[in-house]
Each structure stands twice: as structure tokens, then as C-alpha cells.
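seq as requested:
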Amino acid sequence: MKKKFMLLCMASLLCFSTPAGAVPFPEKTDEVVQDKDGYLPADDHEHFAQFVKEFPNAYKLVVVESTQPEAQTADEYAQKLYDNYNLSDDTLMIVLDIDTQQLGVYPGPALQQKGANLEMLHEKITSYYEPFRNQKEYIKGIELFISEVNAELSRMGKKNGPAGSTAAADPAKAPQPAETAEKSLWLSLPWWLYLMGLLFAALLAALLYSYFRRRHVFAQVDDVEDWKDELVEKLQMIEVDKSLRRSSGTTEERYVELANRKENIMRMRVPDVEMIILEAEEACDRFRFQMALGLLDEARELLTEIEQEMAELKADVAKVVQTKKENKAVLPEIGKLVETAERKLSHARLEYGLPFHELKVKLDDVEAMRGTVKEALAMGDDVKAHETTLKAQAILNGMLSDLEQIPGLVKTVQMELPEELKEMEEGIAAVIDGGYELSQDQLDTAMLQAKQLLTAARNALEEGSLELVRTHVKAFRVQMDAMFQSIEQSVMQQRELAAQAKQPVQEKEGLPMQPVQAAMADEEGEPDELPEHPYEPEPAEEPEQEQRVEPFDVQEESRLAMAEAAIAGEAAAAMDAPGKPKEGADRSALSVEEREELGITAKAAHPEDAEPREEEEVEYELVIPKQPAAAVEHEQPPRQLVVETEDDVLNELERISGILMRVRQQIKRSYLPGIPDQLKYLFDRSVQLLGQIKAALEQYRYEMDEVAALLQEAHEFVHETEKMAEKVIESCQKAEGAIQYTNRYRRQNRQVNELLQKAEQAFRQLAFQEAYQMAEEARLLVEGEREEPDGRWMLRRKKKG
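C-alpha cells:
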């Protein structure tokens, strides 16, 4: 029984193999236009359905991709489709083949009897459908074709009369005994035979589903494998080995890297894709179609990555090849740039009489690079040659740009800056002659810094370091602006003080003069106790000052005299204090704030020092500014604050804020290469403490002791910040001056060069004291002199020639 069943299944499979392999007809629907794949727009479907309702006959339009292999022609396909759909006799079956754009028709028996034969229909198709087919307007052509066919059938019906319509009803009236016998035969079969038929149909449907699903999956496998083969062919077309054998150096390393990447794709990535394809085929043979589709998706992702890597590999290979071509074009251009730069440099050296050492060193470096490029090209190292060429080209372009700026910089350094310095000196002298008092020590410090910047700019211009020249010029002008603003503010303050002094405050003018005159008389009577104190007023100069200054009231003169007497009294108390010798009295006995408020200058106290200082500037070379005041031997700890009321706290906060602002301006105007971390910490901590104090004062209830403790801590931090800022600025200036001075011996001694390099490195790392010591050590190696006291070695007699 089993053998018979298996044989029956095999025979059925053989019988149905040919029809199952064919593509089935589109399933019949009630729509007038059947377009399963959507080749025609939906609007055309609706328009055609409304159009055919106007005619008495029925029309069915089916749009298919191709009529092959079911039929050889479109008309044959339309006939088979008519039979398959079992349409009515008065229906005209129309089939549109999208591939060939042909129109197949088959009329029903009723239409054939009316005269709608294939010959007439083909004539109408040729006349009315073909023009619209060339324009891709299929629906318009079909509608025109139907209109003409109906018109032709109407004309033929009028000629033939009603006789032709009677023959269509005769076949239906004939008896059908065969159909009745067949129905009785099916009803006589047993139920188990029906069950076997159903099982056989289900098995056949499963076999058909498996066959078509497997065929679909294998089609995708073929697509993935074709994609893989195409990528392998493209990868093999990328030539790397031939270029690798003809290269060396960096180019050889680059080609080796490219060859390794290509080998990795060929040996690792492509075999992975092949293994995935084999696994997908095995899964498909086991009817695990979903697993096979997942493997194929993974293979597609790998192929996409391989394609991207191939594109990058191809771009890199093309870049290396392009590098070789660029070298041949850029090398002659560099030679022309070198000649131009050398000619301009020689012209500048002859015109201005300056050596421009750094520019000459850059030109020598470019010449060495040209030699390196030629050697690399001779050895086949195209990549190194290209990199060196680009570097040399960048240096030459920058050098040509610097050479174009030399005339302007020479004019600025040799003419404009000295003129500005001279104008500033004349302006200061005019202000002092006009009767205004200026802080002479601050002016001296600022002028020394300006002269130092001018000297540094000249040295940098002589060396050819144009960027450094621009930096020094900018710093010089900022220094000049700061000095001008400071003088202007001082003058304005004195004018405001003079205007306020003109208002009468006391009724009797002689009363405030008595204690002042007594104090001045005591000072004149004891000239030996205060020898040459810089802040001691000289009575002999008062008449001259009265002549220079605008006419004040006696009230203003009394206030100035009281201020001078108070200063003299404080200086005498400082000299008489135990443990402090008289020789140590100096302008540092007063605080910076008191000197700024009172406007007392060292020039007014020592007018005889002004002329020798100008002579020293003419006879000596200034490298680092000399300190205007002697250093304090013993540092005094910050004073203990006495805070009793909220006003005291607010006044102290204002004072500390002013000190922080002044320190910040000093750091900003000093042009330090950087700020040390310790100084940053002290400054930030001071600001934080001020914020804490303000936050504590904003509370509804606060403890005065806590605020006083915070204020004392802030005062100590600000005092330490101020000292460290002055130390950092001084060390930076000393180190910079020492390095610039010793730089002239750099090419004479290799050990000096090494020490200067270490000093420059320490300077960039903000270790200014260490940089100064190394630069001084380098100077002593060459000059062999005894190390001079700190701050005095900078002033040296200029060498002749």
C-alpha cells in the first residue's frame, strides 16, 4: 500500500512539474483594470473604468510585465487569459505587455459574430494605439482604440440587421446529459478517497511552496556571490606590488602598509563572506529559509564594509601616485622661491646694514631641505620628498612675507619708537615744569622698561626675529599708552584738588599755618637728623613751586604744607625707631598707596640725580631695568587688622579689591609668557575669600569675629600675592634680559648654546629664576668675569664696532 502511494505521489509530481514551473496567470478580480505591480497610475485606472461604462460591451484590461513564457504573442496570452477568467461572450479581453509595449486582444464569441475579428482589431491598434505607445500614454491609446472599435461595430450592425444576433442563443438550449452523469459519479466515491485527495493537495502545496521559496533564496545567494566576485575583481585591479619593488624609504613603508591592507581584505574579509554564503546554502537545503536570509544580510553588511575599505585603499594608492607627480612640479618652483628669497635677503642686508641671522638660518635650512628632497627622489622615497617639499615651501612663503615687512619694521624700530620715547620724555618734563607732581620712581621704572623693550626690539631686528620684533613693538606702545594714562590721571587729580582747595573752609587763613610752620622750623633746625631723606620738603624750592603752579588759595598751600610736615614726621619716627639704622631710610618707608595718594616723587627730592641718569643711558647699554628702590633686607609680616564696625570691613574690602586690580594690571602689562600656578592659586584664593566675606555680610545675622578672621586671611593672601607678583615680574625681566644679552655668544661656544637652550626651556616652563641663573652661567663661560651683584650686571659699557 505504501509503495503504491509513493508511486502515485511521484507520478503526480512528474505530471504537475511542467505546469508548476510556469508563472501563473494574474488572479481574476472584479476591477476593469488589473495592474498588480502598479505600472499605470491609479488615476488612469479610475478614468478607464468610467470610460468603458459608456459602451454596451464589456472590456477587461490586464497589465503584465511580460507574456513570456506562457504565450509567444500577446494575442495568444489574451486568449488564454480569457479562457482562464471565464469571461462573458460580449467581453473584449485586452492585455498590455509592459516589456514589449504590445497590445494583445481577444474578442468573445458574441463580438466575433458582430464582426470584431483579429484582423480588424489589429488595424485599429496600428492606427490608434501605436502613436500613443511611443509617447508612453497607454491608456489614451487604448481608449481611442475602444472608441473606434465600437464605432466600427455600430456601422457593421446597421448594415447586417438583426439577423446576426439570433445564432448566439442556440447552444445554450441543447440538453446536457453528460454533466448530470459526471455529477452522479463524483457523489458515489467514498469519503476516505476525498481525504487522500486533500492530503495529496496539501503535500503538493507544501512542495510547491518549498520549491519557490528555495528558488527565491538561491537567487539572493547568487546575487551576493556575484557582488563578491565583482569586488574581488576590482581589488585585484589595484596595483601595489609593482610600485613597492621600485620604492624605498618612507614611500616603501607606505606601500607596504597598502599591500598589507589589500592582503588583509583578500585573505581575511573575502573568505569570511564565502563561508557565510556556504552556510546560507546549507541552511536553504535544510529548508531553514529565515536563517539563510539572516546570513545573507550579514554577508551584505560585510561586502559593504569591504567596498568602503577598497575605496579608501584606492584613494590612498592614488594619493601616493599623485605625490610623485606633485614632486616633479613643485621642486622647480621651490628653486625659484629660494632664488627670490635669497635676492631679497641680500638686498635687505645691504640696504639696512643688518645681518638678519635667523632669516639666513632659515634660508640655509631650506637649502638643506632641497638637498634632502633630491636625495629622497633619487632613492625613490616620494612621500618623504613630498613632506619635505611642503615644509620648505611653507618656510619660504613665511620668509618672503617677513622680507616684505622688513622696511616697515626698520622704520618703526629705528625712527618711530625713539621718536615716541623722546616725545614722552619731553612731555614728562613739560608736565613737571608746569607745576604738577608725578611719581618719579614709577616713571623711572616705566621709562626703563620702555627703553628695555626698544633695545630688545633692535636686537631682535638685528637677529632677524621679526615676530619677536612685532611683539616688542606692541609691548612698547602699550607701555607708552599706560604711562600717558597714568600721567593724565595724576594731572587731573591735582587739578581737582586745586579746584576743591579754592573753596573757603575756615574763616581765618592763618590758623592752619601755625603748626605747619612750627614743624618746618623744627626740621630746618635739625638738618643732621634726617640726612637727604627723599620725601623731606626743601624750603628753598617752595617759592619756585609757587611760581610754576597756578595761583592757589592760602587754604591749599596750608594743606600741602601740612601733608609735607606729616611725611617728614613719619620719616623722622622711622629713623629714630630702635633696631633700624639711619642709612636704611629710603622711599620704601612709605607704602605704595601713600606714595600714589600724596604724589611725592624722587625727582623732586633728588633733582641732582636726573642729569647723571641721562649720561648713563648714553654711555652704557641697558639690558635689564635697574630696581628703582633698594630691596628690603628683612620682610615685615602683614599687619594685624583691627576690625570693629561694618564700615571698617567695607573699607578694607575696597582696599583689598584695589590691590588685586593693581596686581592684575601689572601682570597684564608685563607681558609674561605665562602665570605660575602658585600665583594663580594665591590670586584665586584671594578672590574667593572676598566672595565669602561679601556673602557673610549679606546675611541677616553674622558674627563680626568670623568676618574679621576671613578679612585677616584675605589680607594675608593679598599681601603674599602682591609680593609674589612683583617677584615673578622681576625674575621674568631679569631672565629675559640675561638671555638676550648672552644670545650674542650663542654661535661662538657650543656649551653656551646648550645652556641658553636650557634657559629658554626653563623660561617657557615659567621657571624664570632658573632661566636667569643658566643664562648668567653661560655669560660667565664666555666673559670669564666675576659675577656682579644682582641687578647691576645689566649696565655695561658698549663695545666699539
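The chain has 26 helices and six strands.
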